[in-house]
Write a structure and sequence with these properties.
The complex is a heterodimer. By secondary structure, chain A is an all-alpha fold. Chain A has one domain. Helices cover 85% and strands 0% of the residues of chain A. The radius of gyration of chain A is 20 Å and the shape is elongated. By secondary structure, chain B is mainly alpha-helical. Classes of the chains: A mainly alpha, B mainly alpha. Chains A and B meet through helix 1, helix 2 and helix 3 of A and helix 13, helix 14, helix 18 and helix 19 of B.
């Protein structure tokens, strides 16, 4: 019963957090940005994320249909579950990133040039390490899909480890999003008094989107 | 004599690992060889590289030298080797004997070898050209800029039609003939496996020369294609199996009907302007069918791998049926895209299902709804059938196989009907397009005004339909958990299925929250998100109740034992 209460509280907490995020989007984004957000992020990316989940589940269901017993397909089921979890987290992070202004997005996402030159800050280095750790976990789960076997324990622990790592990286991303957003807000409030600050903030707004966060792409992989 | 030579390869303990990694090793070697050759090729000057680039237009028109032709054939063989090894790798089965390992190794060697031979051959030629260019001090390379215009393309090279005809003849006449000469059912199975490729080639060569007035070749092609139906009909009439004879006759008439529609479509394509015809042939025919054929090859190699594993196509009947069904879906999709390519830009824009239309649900007609729904179901059926492709037929009993076959058959037919509906809607849209265009042309000014309005028509939230869809997904999930309460015997299997379904329900709720961004400015959040959120707690409660029930049972058992 204690676990149920904890689960309930956790679900409620996440729900409240998401509602706050939604309220921020409603206030911060203009009509055009909301239009892009609703269609490109929520509808296209959201519905697209359901397709691989359905595919993973079909792998598990086909195994159940084939062998008829849960024991043979436990590994596949766990693999489908973990992979779907990674997809949910990456979808949630994408929503969080795209809900911010372009200036915040540009300051938070890791771009290709940074990866090529290996020019990372501590937070980015941490995220890249997390990506490096979670990628083998995801690939291992992919290789377990549709294959009957008894290596369930390895599957569970590897998936759990991957989930923890992805959650840590997402937490770092979410924290930096909030920090950068607050920083820019403070700067914007100061800029009302000085012309120079207003110029710089306008310059930041003009920076083009680099085509999405590499972190998000990696999490999808 | 080696003590293990008469036994299955797997029986030798030291060979077990080798047999498992053989496909991985070969596939890995091919991938490395590919990237290595690409890396070295990219070191040559861009001008020389551009000159050596083989475009799809060159292949379509057949304007390629013998060396390039060899290169293209070699690349096709490499692709086949890659698909074969990938299907072998994906099934993750142990190779049972020396012959299988030898074949896998040979496929890897052929793939790597061809990549390297073609690569080295090209490097030598490019190296000579680079040296010549340097010696002369200026570019002597006849750098002919490839024309990007598609205006001059009215037909594909005759070799495509000839190849298609030979393949169709072999599949539709050759295989049935072998089946009746040697009385072997396996030829029918092979024909079923190759049927979709044969249909794809038929459509491809049927549309490859739309302005050709002489229709002899088209009718000859059709005669070759439907002759198998006629052969089977006459055989079944002879043997007294009237049910099957009727089925084959019906199929013959169905193909004839489709052929007549195809002739009308062909005439319509022939009337397109030169530029649009070129675009149609390159984009809608060449690229589209190339993609479809790659998909067909990929799934066919999985079936071939099964045949290769078990040694008989009868044992792989279910895998082959899945492969055929998925290939048919590929062909239907390619045919749909081809019809789409023949539409005018305005009709296409009006008839296409865009995400914006889906988000608003305002400009959607019955055509859009049916098309997206049938397309979605076809994709789901294809994914499910792909997951059901494996080598497990070998260990199954006859009754199990038949039961599975019936189930797979139902899924395949559902997908086929949906695909056909989608295709029929597309054809209807094409033929009704002109009439609608005429009506619309009278309202050009109004239309342009409307187009201007669309640019300013921003969407602030998704239609309620989407939120209701997510509510249905999450509610079904929660209700599913209630079933074991009434029938505890189902708890194990239901828990497994609903456990897997949890991420989908969670994603549905996550999306539901952000579908109504503007409603967050109201005092309270959109009520259904609260409802769906509270429903998420239901499974937790059921698990808790179940745990408690189990604990009580164990306690009562312990008391009873004491």
């Amino acid at each position: 019963m204690l676990m149920t209460v904890i689960r309930g509280l956790a679900t409620f907490g996440i729900f409240k957090l998401l509602l706050r995020l939604r309220a921020t989007i409603g206030k911060n984004l203009n009509t055009r940005q909301v239009d892009n957000f609703v269609i490109d992020v929520v509808l296209v990316q959201g519905v697209s994320s359901l397709v691989p989940m359905a595919f993973f589940n079909f792998e598990a269901i086909s195994c159940l249909v084939e062998f008829g017993d849960f024991e043979s397909c436990e590994g596949t089921t766990w693999a489908a579950l973990w992979l779907s979890c990674y997809i949910i987290i990456s979808t949630a992070i994408t929503i969080a990133i795209k809900s911010q202004s372009r200036a915040v997005q540009n300051s938070v996402v890791i771009i290709k040039e940074q990866v090529v030159t290996f020019n990372f800050h501590t937070k980015e280095m941490f995220q890249m390490s997390c990506l490096g750790l979670s990628l083998p976990c995801a690939l291992f789960q992919m290789s377990s899909l549709g294959v009957p076997g008894n290596a369930v324990t390895v599957n569970i622990y590897m998936g759990l480890f991957g989930l923890m790592v992805v959650l840590a990286a997402s937490g770092a991303e979410f924290t930096s999003l909030v920090t950068k957003s607050n920083e820019l807000k403070k700067r914007a409030s100061r800029s009302r008094t000085t012309t120079f600050d207003a110029e710089s903030s306008r310059h930041l707004d003009k920076v083009d989107d680099d085509g999405g966060s590499l972190f998000t792409v990696g999490a999808f992989v | 004599m080696h003590p293990y030579s008469n036994y299955r390869y797997i029986s030798h303990p030291s060979s077990r690992f080798t047999s498992l990694i053989a496909p991985h090793r070969s596939l890995g070697a091919m991938v490395v060889a590919y990237f290595a050759t690409q890396a070295i090729t990219n070191m040559f000057p861009p001008k020389i590289l551009k000159e050596h680039r083989v475009t799809l237009k060159m292949i379509a028109l057949g304007t390629i030298s013998s060396r390039v032709r060899v290169k293209v054939y070699a690349q096709a063989i490499v692709a086949c080797c890659g698909f074969f090894l990938f299907s072998q790798y994906q099934t993750r089965t142990n190779l049972d004997n020396h012959v299988e390992i030898a074949i896998v190794n040979s496929a890897g060697s052929v793939g790597c070898g061809l990549l390297l031979i073609v690569g080295v051959w090209e490097w030598i030629i490019m190296y000579r050209e680079t040296i010549k260019e340097r010696r002369n001090g200026k570019s002597i390379a006849k750098f002919k800029r490839q024309s990007t215009s598609l205006e001059g393309i009215h037909e594909l090279h005759w070799s495509f039609r000839a190849t298609s005809f030979i393949v169709i003849f072999l599949v539709s006449v050759g295989l049935p003939a072998f089946r009746f000469i040697w009385v072997e059912k396996k030829f029918t199975e092979w024909q079923t496996l190759c049927q979709s490729a044969s249909v794809a080639l038929f459509i491809f060569s049927f549309m490859s020369n739309p302005r050709e007035k002489d229709r002899k070749f088209i009718f000859l092609l059709f005669a070759a294609y439907v002759s198998s139906e006629l052969i089977y009909t006459s055989h079944h009439i002879y043997t007294g199996n009237h049910k099957k004879a009727t089925s084959h006759t019906t199929r013959f008439f169905l193909w004839s009907g489709l052929f007549i529609v195809g002739l009308r479509f062909r005439e319509r394509v022939a009337n397109l302007s030169d530029e649009r015809l070129g675009k149609f042939i390159m984009e809608s025919l060449m690229k589209n069918f190339l993609n479809a054929s790659l998909g067909i090859l990929f799934v066919s190699f999985r079936s071939l791998n099964c045949v290769f594993e078990t040694g008989s196509i009868e044992m792989c009947e279910n895998t082959a049926s899945c492969s055929t069904a998925i290939s048919v879906y590929f062909v239907i999709n390619a045919a749909k895209n081809m019809v789409d390519g023949a539409m005018s830009a305005r009709t296409r824009r009006r008839k296409a299902v865009s995400w914006r239309k889906m988000a608003e649900f305002s400009n959607l007609t019955t055509h859009h709804l049916f098309q997206s729904l049938s397309g979605g179901i076809m994709i789901l059926c294809g994914m499910f059938l792909f997951c059901m492709m494996d080598n497990a037929d070998e260990g199954e009993t006859e009754s199990d196989r038949n039961q599975e076959k019936k189930f797979l058959g139902k899924i395949a037919i559902l997908g086929f009907i949906c695909g056909l509906t989608q295709f029929a809607l597309e054809v209807r849209a094409l033929f009704n397009g002109d009439r609608d265009e005429n009506v619309r042309s009278r309202e050009v000014s109004i239309d342009s005004e409307m187009d201007d309005e669309v640019d300013d028509n921003y969407i602030s939230e998704l239609n309620d339909v989407w939120q209701n869809f997510t509510i249905v997904l999450s509610t079904l999930y929660s209700l599913g958990w209630l079933i074991p309460i009434f029938n505890p015997g189902l708890l194990g299997s239901f828990m497994t299925i609903f456990f897997m379904y949890t991420p989908i329900a969670a994603t549905a709720i996550l999306l539901a929250i952000f579908m109504k961004v503007r409603s967050s400015l109201c005092s309270s959040p959109y009520p259904p998100t609260h409802v769906t959120n509270s429903l998420l707690l239901v499974p937790s409660l059921i698990i808790a109740i179940e745990d408690r029930r189990k604990l009580r049972e164990e306690a009562s058992l312990a008391i009873y034992r004491v």
